[in-house]
Amino acid sequence: MPKMTTRTRRSLIAAAAIAATAVLSACGTAGPAPSGAAGKGTAGGASSVWVLSGATEVAFDKSFASWNDAHPSQKFTVQAFANDPYKQKIRTAVGADQAPTLIYGWGGGTLASYVDAGKVVDISDLVADPALKGRFIPSIAAVGQVDGKTYAVPNNGLKPVQLYLNKDAFTTAGVKPPKTWDDLISSIPKFKAKGIAPITVAGAAKWPLLMWEEYLVDRIGGPQVMKDIVAGKKDAWSDPAVIKANTMIQQLVDAGGFVNGFGSISTDSGADIALMYTGKAAMTLALPSAYQAVQSGDPGFLTSHKLGYADFPTVAGGKGDPKDVVGNPSNYWSVSASATKAQKKTAEEYIAKNLLNDSYVTDLLGTANVPPVRGIEPQLKKTSDPEFYNRIYKLADLAPSFQLSWDQALRPDQADALLTNLQQIFLKQITPKQFSAAMNKTL
Amino acid sequence: MTGYTLTTPRSGRAERPRRRRARSAAPWLALPALLMYVAFAIVPLGGAVVLSFVHWDGLGPMSWTGLSNWTSVLADPITGNALALTGKIMLISVIVQTPISLLLGVFTAGRHRYREVLAVLYFLPLLLSSAAVAIAFKAILDPNFGVGAGFGLPFLKQDWLGRPDLVLFVVIFVIAWQFVPFHTLLYQAGVRQIPVSLYEAATIDGANRIQQFFFITLPQLRNTIITSGTLMVTGSLTYFDVVFVLTGGGPGYATRLLPLQMYLTGFTANQMGPASVLAVILVVIGLALALVLTRFTGFAKMQSDQEGV
């Protein structure tokens, strides 16, 4: 007996170890039950909301705290999550009808899939309310629409991408901020001669690479190229603009434009931005979160006005408007379809009365976020750094096209393939043609 | 068995009859374990098999797709690449980890000066969580702020995680750093069980230390080597956390091992069907490996190497 049992038990243990991986994939069916969320809440249960942890969290906390104080019978419970875990958790929760009452999102492909599955409420009537209608910048509010109906409203700062510069590094190398792509290429040897890396980018994180691709494709071919890709037109990735953008990226890599070892640089430690404000690199292409990173990493860099800004360079012969921007227009609230009637009512009243009201706007400005609210120019002048705040506001407000980040605009499976293939472009593992061929398969 | 040990102290006088009864009750005592195993291994496994035949994005309704998930996954070059990487990492891990942990185990089992202090240092990685290990190494390997810049040694200033030809070995190194202490512990226990009389006899016969190692220690550790090897091989099928945090499977597909590809397909690309296909493939490979290893290494027989001692 001992012999048999031992053998069976040993192989069972081994099998169990392996089967654990199967459990992992089966998690999708069961799903982690959201603690604190009252998805299946009893009548009168508190509405719930999940926010992202980080610098901006405090603005959300304050907004919901003041709502809770004024409405003791209609309270929200607030929970904060880190960015990447949130994105996976929220999808599972929405799929299992366990979502918080207010769903934090980015618009784009994910919002469209929620709408397709009937998981979020149509709030077109709510936003038609005159009090709410004029509040947001129209192009930013439009991201919350799917097929002409509104399912999401902006709740966070504008996030256009631009170049962030170390002015000292430019002075040392005797270079002016690049206006054209050729300026950028010709500045590379000048920076390198002074031992400064021209551009820092977090290649290990993949998504920072995407901003280069998004801007180049728009500058070369205009916004229509991406519209065709999102619409799933056959061979849309073989558009000459995409091929040319990838060719130019590889030329920039060959010319030594990016800091040595950029493929190992991660962004969660802030190592990419740190290279810029420590003077080891001259510039970086980034979301406004780069400003927050400098603010916490080296506040003196800001107060001594060493941080400069520039639009993405133009490309000779390109069709795109030089005022076009890419990035995340904002973040958005959607109302969960699985919430109770009382919870939905609370959420809609909160959106109508408190969303991006004056104190909310002030709190966002305090965390280096520029709210997508019309007519806040006077408030921008009173901020700690009017140059930066005005610039962000103007970038977004004046843009003929504000392209949502591709990894958000596309279906999740396409986004995964895009990020990985693009990383291979930057590391010169594949050619632009191979990139287009691989991506065409995902359409 | 647990029940037997628990009841013994209270009824020492009636040991023999009790022992017999305890033996006949053994299958019942296995019931809780069996229930757990069915609930947490068999049922999800069945779920994964079913899911491998449906299309599901985790949000909308599921729809039956027949074999199309299987054909698309098996035809996908990324699957082949992931399989090859998993095989490579399995093989190299065993080759790298076994000698190091064997030698360290033999060393820590001996009686040297400072042995305990050194042993504590060697076992330290065992106390750290995989995510912490990966985050720490990510910071250490940063080309601009990491170990290269810290020590001012240019050869340490490599693009460790960004060079596709280098990154696999970095991953194998970090995994070895994390798991060698565990296997060292196994070997240390194994060495401590070898009767001293064997070494005494060998010394009288004139065998030197190296001869003693090869003719006594190594053969006596046969079962330990098999145990540790089996754990390494089956464990390398499930390497996930360290690689996920350290490289995310990148750059490109350079470290996208099979478990990683399964996770990314399921939870980043939201394709539960193909992800379940990969999960089933992993289970099949794991079971096959476990069976082959237990059968052909004599692991199952578990015969003592100390007969006649």
From TrEMBL, chain B:
Keywords: Cell membrane, Membrane, Transmembrane, Transmembrane helix, Transport
Keyword field contains Lyase: no
Major localization listed first in the record, in broad terms: membrane
Localisation: Cell membrane
Annotated PROSITE patterns: ABC_TM1
Transmembrane feature ranges: 28-54, 89-107, 119-141, 166-187, 231-254, 274-293
Cross-referenced CDD domains: TM_PBP2
Entry-linked InterPro entries: ABC_transporter_permease (IPR051393), MetI-like (IPR000515), MetI-like_sf (IPR035906)
Family (UniProt): Belongs to the binding-protein-dependent transport system permease family.
PANTHER family (alphabetical): ABC TRANSPORTER PERMEASE PROTEIN, INNER MEMBRANE ABC TRANSPORTER PERMEASE PROTEIN YCJO
Protein name: ABC transporter
